[in-house]
């Protein structure tokens, strides 16, 4: 069976986890956590990065730091994972979904301004498949209306927009290191605080409402409970697992890019003949090969393709059911404008096996069986 995803493993993970255990420091903010935080700050030229227990908890922190109150509104795409929406609901906000661009499946930046009301406080772009949203336009709109921007960069670690790392452009950025992501610690994430006025508040929020971080830096004589907080600290055991991958981050990235390029070149002839559509990467964007997807002619073709591939021991999967059509989406939000592409495009999209060290033999089988399926139907 060719799996859809295999979590990354480079060989040193167990060594570093053993080191953490032997150093008697496996809770949050241990040596490996600090190494990871500093690596991201240096590599991405980020102001402040803090590992969290998940990408979802990073989004939770960002939503709380935005100071949202009941009645406030957040603009986001409907084509995203529930975590993006849940975080803002948790903070008390109402959701305003807008349509996506069919080329990237990212939020359509030209639809955002029309969705803004006097209640709007935040725009949350989601960098789908590791391809950046049109951030210049989004940041310009945010500045015009005095809105905060939370980048859901869960899939976009190592991706860039006009030379800037995804997650470092808005007020906050959120990464995920779930086992399905390019770099993993099983469950984990990170929040990027790009607006320095939120750093101290973020540290307090993350550390159970205490000023413990300031205490360890020698800025206060003792630490106290000073504000609302929660426990968002990732275990150093998980950080040790992640650190092994960050040491070879470019090797992992290059390996995935090679697989992505091989798929693209193999299926380009199908796109040229109008049989499928391939992912698009706009000028100025550098992606991280987080996923490779095809768009079939319609939902029926997609379902038959998934069934055919499974019969040949290849797992291909569809992706999000648009949030605005889900029970919770109807309860917590509304769709602004017309759903031209969100539902119709999501119905056609199918994801192919894509992971670090996907073998050439397996990739060749995915390619040959895909071409066989579509040739038989053309």
Can you walk through the features of this model?
- The protein has an eight-stranded mixed sheet with strand order 1-9-8-5-4-2-3-12, sandwiched between helices.
- The two termini are 27 Å apart.
- The chain has two domains: 13-246, 3-Layer(aba) Sandwich (Aspartate Aminotransferase, domain 2); 249-377, Alpha-Beta Complex (Aspartate Aminotransferase, domain 1), CATH 3.90.1150.
- The model has no long low-confidence stretch (mean pLDDT 96).
- It contains 14 helices and 13 strands.
- α2 (31-43) crosses α9 (236-246), α3 (55-65) packs parallel to α4 (82-90) and α10 (249-272) runs parallel beside α14.
- The longest helix is centred in the last third of the chain and has 24 residues, at 249-272.
- With 378 residues, it is of the alpha/beta class.
What's the short story on this structure?
With 378 residues, this protein is an alpha/beta fold. It has helices at residues 13-22, 31-43, 55-65, 82-90, 112-115, 135-145, 199-206, 212-216, 236-246, 249-272, 299-311, 327-332, 342-348, 360-377, and strands at residues 48-52, 73-77, 94-98, 120-123, 148-152, 160-161, 164-165, 172-176, 189-193, 285-286, 293-295, 333-335, 349-351. An 8-stranded mixed beta sheet has the order 1-9-8-5-4-2-3-12, sandwiched between helices. It has a 3-stranded antiparallel beta sheet with strand order 7-6-10, with no helix packed on it.
Instruction: From the 3D structure, determine the CATH topology of the largest domain.
Output: Aspartate Aminotransferase, domain 2
- Give the CATH level 1 class of the largest domain: Alpha Beta
Major beta-sheet overview: 8 strands, mixed
CATH architecture of the largest domain: 3-Layer(aba) Sandwich
Q: Tally the structural domains.
A: 2
Rounded mean pLDDT score: 96
How are helices and strands ordered from N to C?
HHEHEHEHEHEEEEEHHHHEEHHEHEH
What is the count of β-strands? Answer: 13
Order of the strands making up the biggest sheet = 1-9-8-5-4-2-3-12
What is the percent of helical residues? Answer: 25-40%
What's the gyration radius in Å? Answer: 21 Å
Measured distance between first and last alpha carbons = 27 Å
Q: How many helices does DSSP assign?
A: 14
Low-confidence stretches: none
Give the CA-based shape. globular
Strand content: 5-15%
CATH superfamily of the largest domain: Type I PLP-dependent aspartate aminotransferase-like (Major domain)
Oligomer: single chain
């Amino acid at each position: 069976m060719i799996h859809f995803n295999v979590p990354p493993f480079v060989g040193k993970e167990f060594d570093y986890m053993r080191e953490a255990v032997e150093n008697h420091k496996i809770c949050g903010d241990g040596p490996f956590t600090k190494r990871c935080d500093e690596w991201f700050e240096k590599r991405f030229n980020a102001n402040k990065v803090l590992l969290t227990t998940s990408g979802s908890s990073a989004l939770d922190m960002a939503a709380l730091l935005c100071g949202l109150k009941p009645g406030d509104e957040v603009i986001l795409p409907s084509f995203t994972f529930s975590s993006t929406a849940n975080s803002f609901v948790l903070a008390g906000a109402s959701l305003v979904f807008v349509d996506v661009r069919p080329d990237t499946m990212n939020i359509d930046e030209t639809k955002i301004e029309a969705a803004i009301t006097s209640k709007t406080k935040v725009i949350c772009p989601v960098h789908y498949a590791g391809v950046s949203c049109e951030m210049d336009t989004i940041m310009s709109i945010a500045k015009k209306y005095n809105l905060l921007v939370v980048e859901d960069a869960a899939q976009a670690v190592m991706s860039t927009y006009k030379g800037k790392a995804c997650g470092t452009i808005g007020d906050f950025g959120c990464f995920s290191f779930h086992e399905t992501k390019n770099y993993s610690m099983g469950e984990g994430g990170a929040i990027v605080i790009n607006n320095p006025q939120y750093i101290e508040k973020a540290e307090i929020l993350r550390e159970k409402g205490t000023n413990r971080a300031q205490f360890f830096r020698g800025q206060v004589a003792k630490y106290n409970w000073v504000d609302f907080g929660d426990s968002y600290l990732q275990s150093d055991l998980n950080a040790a697992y992640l650190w092994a991958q960050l040491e070879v981050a470019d090797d992992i990235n290059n390996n995935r890019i090679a697989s992505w390029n091989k798929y693209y070149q193999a299926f380009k002839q199908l796109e040229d003949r109008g049989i499928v559509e391939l992912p698009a990467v706009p000028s100025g964007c550098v992606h991280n090969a987080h996923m490779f997807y095809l768009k079939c002619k319609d939902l029926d073709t997609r379902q038959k393709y998934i069934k055919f591939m499974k019969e040949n021991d290849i797992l291909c999967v569809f992706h999000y059911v648009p949030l605005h059509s889900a029970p919770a989406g109807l309860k917590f939000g509304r769709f602004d404008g017309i759903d031209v592409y969100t539902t119709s495009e999501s119905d056609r999209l199918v994801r192919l096996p894509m992971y670090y060290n996907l073998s050439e033999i397996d990739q060749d089988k995915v390619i040959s069986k895909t071409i066989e399926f579509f040739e038989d139907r053309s």
